[in-house]
């Protein structure tokens, strides 16, 4: 599937040429794993991230951890078992034969072994892959390194939130597409009056020309702080003079910061590849604003789910055309953010393969489009 720009401009790399790995996913980055509140002490859950089955758990002492969710003995999914605390240590117990694994992936016990067999077998040689985990701001992050043995060499993502901000709402949807199409679909400004046409957001008559300033941020770019567009009705309920900034960072993290005086509303979206043709969209919302203290949560939840499901339905429908491997185009200026995304991916791969410092390809720019 080729992606070229219109009007004789510099061609955008083909999606297939982008991928060093067959799946086209980026490694050596922190990926969103779960919302912290989804895991109580002694609980575990299953996730599929970058095509890998992952068990995310929390010890009885409250520490989050992650490991490959497959037992090395007979291949059953470990998260269908239980978590056991014995002799002060939390282990994951395989539901098939009771093998137990510590949070670092090492094997703690094989119950079927007799005493002499257990003495002769070196359990230290049996392990499942473990993943570095970081928990902050109500989010659990997992490091996916190209080298399973290498420690993370990047700080985990951190949102620009006031101290003590708590997760207020979470929504999750699955898009039946590769992560690249999910990312550029969500950042695409030109689709809004067509896919999100509703009285409280956009109407056909409200479309007009816009100009937004952008600049680079760490491993990404920002639509710099600005007053929301006059045809964005939903922003008007926040009060006078709201200011918004939208940041995108690799591997697929989009955060919108809205400030109104001393109040704020932050919507964080994690675009997480599950398989080559499936992507999970997780929206996590934080706020401190009087409107949302009195507005029923069901109204905001309905607005969020309406938006993300409209995007889901659009990219899912897009897959019917993409199945014929058409040659696609990215145009100026509406698709420049998509171009930046592909260039950022390539720059990250070059950085990790060469060992040279990462060079952000995004330069300050003012982009114009109609929406």
From TrEMBL:
Source organism: Hyphobacterium vulgare
Signal peptide residues on this chain, from the entry's feature table: none
CDD domains linked: Rieske_RO_Alpha_N
PANTHER family: 3-KETOSTEROID-9-ALPHA-MONOOXYGENASE, OXYGENASE COMPONENT (PTHR21266:SF60), IRON-SULFUR DOMAIN CONTAINING PROTEIN (PTHR21266)
Protein name: Aromatic ring-hydroxylating dioxygenase subunit alpha
Keyword Chloroplast: no
Location of the Rieske domain: 31-142
GO MF annotation list: dioxygenase activity
InterPro entries: Cholesterol_7-desaturase, Rieske_2Fe-2S, Rieske_2Fe-2S_sf, VanA_C_cat
Transmembrane portions of the chain: none
Pfam families noted in UniProt: Rieske (PF00355), VanA_C (PF19112)
């Amino acid at each position: 599937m080729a992606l070229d720009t219109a009007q004789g401009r510099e061609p955008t790399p083909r999606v297939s040429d982008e991928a060093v790995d067959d799946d086209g996913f980026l490694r050596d980055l922190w990926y969103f794993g779960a919302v912290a509140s989804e895991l109580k002490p002694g609980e575990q859950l299953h996730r599929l991230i970058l095509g890998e089955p992952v068990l995310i758990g929390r010890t009885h002492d409250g520490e989050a951890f992650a490991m490959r969710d497959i037992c090395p003995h007979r291949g059953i999914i470990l998260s269908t078992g239980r978590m056991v605390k014995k002799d002060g240590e939390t282990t994951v117990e395989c539901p098939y034969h009771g093998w137990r694994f510590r949070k670092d992936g090492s094997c703690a016990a094989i119950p079927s072994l007799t005493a002499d067999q257990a003495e002769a077998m070196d359990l230290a040689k049996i392990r499942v892959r473990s993943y570095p985990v970081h928990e902050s701001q109500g989010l659990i992050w997992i490091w996916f390194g190209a080298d399973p043995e290498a420690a993370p060499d990047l700080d985990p993502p951190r949102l620009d939130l006031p101290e003590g901000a708590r997760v207020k709402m979470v929504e999750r949807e699955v898009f039946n597409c590769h992560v690249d199409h999910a990312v550029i679909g969500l950042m695409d400004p030109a689709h809004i009056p067509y896919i999100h046409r509703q009285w409280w957001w956009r109407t056909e008559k409200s479309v007009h020309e816009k100009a937004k300033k952008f600049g680079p941020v760490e491993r990404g770019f920002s639509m710099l702080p600005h007053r929301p567009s006059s045809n964005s009705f939903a922003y008007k309920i926040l009060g006078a003079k709201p200011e918004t900034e939208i940041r995108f960072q690799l591997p697929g993290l989009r955060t919108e910061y809205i400030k109104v005086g001393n109040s704020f509303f932050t919507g964080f979206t994690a675009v997480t590849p599950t398989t080559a043709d499936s992507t999970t969209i997780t929206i996590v919302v934080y706020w401190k604003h009087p409107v949302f203290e009195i507005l029923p949560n069901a109204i905001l939840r309905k607005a969020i789910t309406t938006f993300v499901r409209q995007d889901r339905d659009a990219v899912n429908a897009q897959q019917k055309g993409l199945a014929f491997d058409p040659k696609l185009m990215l145009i100026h200026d509406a698709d420049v953010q998509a171009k930046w995304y592909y260039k950022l991916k390539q720059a990250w791969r070059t950085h990790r393969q060469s060992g040279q410092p990462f060079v952000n390809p995004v330069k300050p720019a003012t982009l114009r489009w109609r929406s």
